[in-house]
Amino acid sequence: MSLAGPSGTDYPPRLWPVICLGVIGHTAFSASRMTVSLAAISLHASAFVVGLLLSLYALLPMLLSVSAGRWIDRVGTRVPMLLGSVVVAVGFVLPAIWLSLPALFLNSLLVGTGFMFFHMAVQKLTGDLGEGAQRMRHFGHLAVGYSVSAFCGPVFAGLLIDGWGAGSSFGASFVASTLLIAAAFALLRWRWTFSGQASRVAPAQARRGRLLDLLASRPLRLLFLSVVVTSTVWDVHMFLTPIQGSRIGLSASQIGAVLGAFSAATFTVRLSLPLISRRLREWQLIGVAQLVAAAVFLVFPLVTSFWGLIGLSFLLGLGLGVGQPAVMSLLHEVSPAGRVGEAVGLRMSLVNGTQVVLPTLFGVVGTLLASVMGGALAYAPLFWCVSLGAVAGGLTALRQRAQRGDPVDPPAASG
Question: Do 144 and 271 meet the contact criterion of CB atoms below 8 Å apart?
Fold first, then answer.
């Protein structure tokens, strides 16, 4: 049995429950990142501590994602999703009952690690439900769903923080996140019983070459550079917006709305992606996305009005919203035969690596800048440095002339 979609497209009936679970889990995760940032600021934490808290979300996923993926291949998706839900819930409960920096550090570690299992299982389930072009459509729907959850998480968290009352405001946000992930656990445990498809990895294919051999391909080298630039822009926006908003006097709900505008833009532009892709190729989309990000970061620290930041955040979301699907499309196109999964794993490592290193690094630099400069422009040098990097990355992508069907440099032979 299947569900009819637009233009006669058929969707398997299990797709929508999978996307629903992904949206619920990602809403709680998105709310947590903003709540932790603002809770730490309310406890008089420095920018370094805030950056370290955000880095911890990605520390264990950076180290464990490959092993977690192999485990999911062996046991299916049900057990990892249930386990991930429990770990995430524990991470939320701790600061809800004991708001302190140690509890926030535990929250970052547990929520980041638990969501890694949950998110990877959702992705595998989505892939199991389709083949070829149908599978790409399914992942497109999942990306749209994540845009919705990335909007709802910060906005709802901000409203709860501002509206619940002094002293209990952050606890209300953590409790709401706990209830969300508990709902996902209950649906998976008692309502939806799919388990995913367990599979075995062929040792000969899994070890046919070294990971660094992928970098022998020039298109892949440039693509991984684009991954680092795009991930840097994304993380810096998530990290510095709460700090910058607090410094210019925005409330938690206003900061949530600024972050929500970014997510609303990614949702909007992804709905229009089929039309956009008829006019621009993947490298062009990546280049334009990074140049848009460079322009936004150039003026972001100079804007001190709520609606001005809303507009800039929305513009940034329009750019990065098309950049990420283009990266994933190219990754499948230019990777050597039989090593697409390995290339995807390297991309995930790079993304998690930037999430671990950059918030802490920028937190250290931001603390120094705040002590030396002060005022609303204290973090402007950080925005402008990232802007310069995005300009370089965007121009490099626009010069890249890789087309569909172009030969790809073969990877170096492994020993």
Answer: yes
Under DSSP, is residue 4 helix (H, G, I), strand (E, B) or coil?
A: strand
* pLDDT value, residue 56: 87
What does the pLDDT average to over 135-163? 80
Name the CATH architecture for the domain at 12-190: Up-down Bundle (1.20)
Q: Is the pLDDT of residue 339 over 60?
A: no
- Chain segment 179-228, per-residue pLDDT in tens: 999 999 999 888 776 554 444 444 444 444 565 666 777 888 888 888 88
The answer to whether 181 touches 61, Cβ cutoff 8 Å, is no
Cβ-contact 117, 87 below 8 angstroms: yes
Containing H/E element for 201? Answer: none
Which sequence spans correspond to the domains of the chain? 12-190, 217-403
Supply the DSSP symbol for 190: I
